[in-house]
Amino acid sequence: MYRLDPLLRAATALDSAAGAIHRFADSLAQPALVEHAADDPLALWSPLRTHSLRLRLGEETTRTDLDGHIRDWLSSLTETMPGNAEEVASVTGPSRDLRFAAVLMLHHFTAVTNLAVRPIDPDDSLHEHPSQGFAGLWTRQATPEDLPALTDMAVQLQRFDTNFGLFGIRQNAEAHLRAELRTMLAGEPELTWILESDAGLAGFTQVHTTQQSPWATEPYVDPLAAGYLCSMFVDAAARGRGGGGLLAEAARRCAVHRGWTALLLHHAVANPWSAPFWARQGYRPLLTTWQRRPLTI
């Protein structure tokens, strides 16, 4: 993996206890099905049924080899519900591995999310970038008293992200998000930051350790050296004024304080604001997830 991208470590071995492992060319593949009930907290950010194919592509595997295996895998997915947007086929691979795009697009897959990375220099000064006074906006650490407003913004964020077709609106989102935020504010409040203006709260960001969001980095990224920027929201009235940059800087400062060497985040490929914004903040794609929905074309 390092030859593809120096920020990728060697992928962890596939676990035979998680299902049958298939060999093709010099590669390994493991199909899996992940299901969530509609009231499961994990369903806030994913479809209800995901047929995933975990791949470990060898250097000698060609596009033709990959095409054949993808074709066979799709043919094996018999428990399908045509037209159901909550059931998808999903493949994730290194963004710089050019074998994926051409093959998966032929099978009607679309790139849906990027796991993006920003290297962190541990010697970077904590005082190079301001946290307040920029365009009438500033950041501060969240407190338990912010819970109602944070919950409201988190619900708005989840609903906004449904615009990109990755998951649906969940009726119990508010309760789940409130509980998660309450836990974070009680345990590690320094990982949640508020964007504020004279008019009140204008946004927030939250960073997780990779132990809190292990699914975010497995299997390619060293979990002990990175943090995961799990949420960022800026109110419409504060957009275009640099508030997002202030929140991104707050997350960077969290990473420097923790001694992390990288920050990771997911963003939707279809979101026209995400890629340009995160590129300006120093992030670039590391892993890309491709999905096909509905399963039957």
Structure notes:
It is globular and about 60 Å long. 38% of the residues are buried. It has an eleven-stranded mixed beta sheet, sandwiched between helices. The protein has 297 residues and is an alpha+beta fold. Helix content is 25%, strand content 28%. Helix 3 crosses helix 4 (173-187).
Low confidence ranges: none
> Pairing-aware structural class of the strands and helices?
alpha+beta
Strand order of the largest sheet: 1-2-3-4-11-5-10-9-8-7-6
Helix content: 25-40%
How many E-type strands?
Answer: 11
Rg (C-alpha, Å): 20 Å
| Overall spatial form | globular
End-to-end distance, in Å? 33 Å
SSE string, helix = H, strand = E? Answer: EEEHEHEEHHEEEHEHE
The largest sheet is:
11 strands, mixed
Q: Please, how many helices?
A: 6
The proportion of strand residues reads 25-35%
Overall pLDDT: 89
